[in-house]
Amino acid sequence: MKEKLSPACKVDSSPSPPIKTSLDKQSASQQFCRPAFTQKFRESTGGNVWWTIFTLLMIATVSVRFYKLRYPEQVCWDETHFGRHANQYLQRTFFFDVHPPLGKMLVALFGYLDGYDGSFWFEVGKKYGDASYMGMRIGCAIMGALVVPLCFLTIWEMTASLPASTFTALCLIFDNSLVVLNRFILLDPMMLFFISATVFSMAHFNKQKRSFSFLWWFWLSSTGIFMAGSFSVKFVGLFLVFLVGLRAIYDLWIILGDMSRPVTYTVKHFLARALCLIALPVALYVAIFYVHLRILHLGGEEDEFYSSAFQVSLKGNMFHNSTGPREVAYGAVIRVKNNVLEGQYLHSHRQLYPVGARQQQITTVYIRDPNNRWFIKRHNQSSPLWNATDPIDLVRNGDLIRIEHRTTGRNLHVHRGPAPISNKMYQVTGYGVRGEGNDDDFWRLEIEGAAEGEVLEIVRHSFRLVSPNNKCVLTSTTKNLPEWGFGSAEVACNPKMHDDRAYWHIDDNRYPRLPNVSYTIYELSFLERFIESHKNMFMGNAGFRPKISDFQSRPWMWPINFRGQFFSVEGVVIYLLGNPIIWWGHCLCFLLYFLLWIVNAVIEKRAVNIAEKQLDLQRRTLNTCKWLFIGFLCHYVPFWPMARILYFHHYFPALLFSNMISGMMLNYILETFSEKISPKFYTYFVSGLLLVFFYSFYLFTPITYGYPNRPSQYNDSQMYGMKWISSWEF
Fold this sequence. Notes:
Pathway: Protein modification; protein glycosylation
Enzyme class: transferase
Radius of gyration: 32 Å
GO molecular function, one term: dolichyl-phosphate-mannose-protein mannosyltransferase activity
Transmembrane segments: 49-67, 136-156, 184-205, 217-250, 270-291, 583-603, 624-642, 648-669, 681-700
Number of strands: 17
Mean pLDDT: 88
Low-confidence stretches: 1-38, 40-46
Keywords: Endoplasmic reticulum, Glycosyltransferase, Membrane, Repeat, Transferase, Transmembrane, Transmembrane helix
């Protein structure tokens, strides 16, 4: 009796190379849609097997993801960061973070829907007590759990193979590391959801037979929308753009080669993809940032990461509704701030350097302090004091000036010796008595983008201070002084004039003879705030340099599950570690994929005569795995050259593609031997594989759901004997 096809099973109409077989189009389509074991299994179970298996997989997903979700009832790892950000959204308080805002906004939304008021102070190891934290954990767990059906449906849409889809889902369900990552208040579950949804939408789009139909537009737009969501949660989501872009280029190239269509048809396809995969994601990303900046309109402790002009729009900030002289005159008391991320104030105090010239220390600090105030005076002027009858003398671009510390009377001075830490730069000190000094106190003012003689203005103007005698530029280095410098940032004079950290601005100007203006004239537009936010975010990410850290890892460690990552050690231990059987199985499946690729290449090169069915299976498997492997590479390879500190969880976007490749290769093994084994053996094999996955998952559940802090070498430890390799730290 002829079997009725599932509605989800459709002929592959993606622009992939045609399969060179002797089968007619209809039989090739059915061969594609109904792998042998799927067909046999359906015939023996009555046709409802797809929904039965899918339902069981969803029940298993919910069971393992939501089991003991409340436990541990304490703040674990990065919950401290994202929980605090949720607080700040709920309290409308501005903050700085290196990640885009969507994920944190969703965490705040989950908390808000659960009645959380943003009052709990998140700190690693702190007990939640009566705080309503479960809404945030449940929201993250739901988004993480949705990854399983999305990946299942992606493989089904790409291959119509129920075994391949099922194996993919099983790998995801019983992976201990994914369970851990989905159970806490983190950004990763949301990012994995958007990545999975993007790949699912792209697979659906590639199956559409009618170009420019409603469904064609729907799935193309969905791809762009979910892609925007992925990089609106974390910038790692940008790697997905490479995969989507490569597939779009490939499709356009195939369409261009269709000689039955005019070139204008290809142009239409290009414009449609540009609209949905470029313009739409960019517009959504900008809109998300607009909402982010509208919500966070109150000043907070992290305002100092941004420029003074940025801070003007934040209610409660010292610059909001403030006034002061717009132009800077000689004799004014000023406060000078560095322009870069975490820009700090130029500072001095009476303590001396214990090295070098042993003169007064010059540093930069975050805090607003009386020791951050300086007089500005002409280079030939000792005293900054002025008379009311003297004409107002304005500071101009190109002037030669001196800067005197208001509290101690020492001039900002360059000493030709090496700086305390950055020994390729010159030491900057406080020198002189009551403004008296020498010509190493002279600085030439260079206003960025200003004409010669233009008057220096506060906030708006960015400038450099160049020592003409020593041919160097005043800069704040990235290094902190030791204990004798109170951990403040080092200030030096850099002979290399092209230094991004050598730009400064004045954010406070006190001179009673000039009229005050409202700081609202410096308020930035949304676009300017958007650009500055991204400059700070990119610099913040670049600033995460490797340090000695228990959690640091390198990309080569990730696929082999070499080392995990602690999520909690206070009271109970949560350890992020992949299910070793599944992860090491991924490595074997990758080897099998490469072997299959080589064998298929040899077969085609040597024109080896093999069964059409087997040849079709190989090509279908390779075609699907090709794009999954490209997705894996797009999310894995970029981490290799990165200089920033890396963590184990950075691998998980690539892991999604690794799981899907493993599902495909397991299905390939079964399909290859479909004629040689019975359905009963198939059932035993799948049952055995499921048992192995589950048992391996079960063995490592103590570190997945939390166990008392007892090292694994003790006989009474729940993890006794489970430290299979020495690099695991539990």
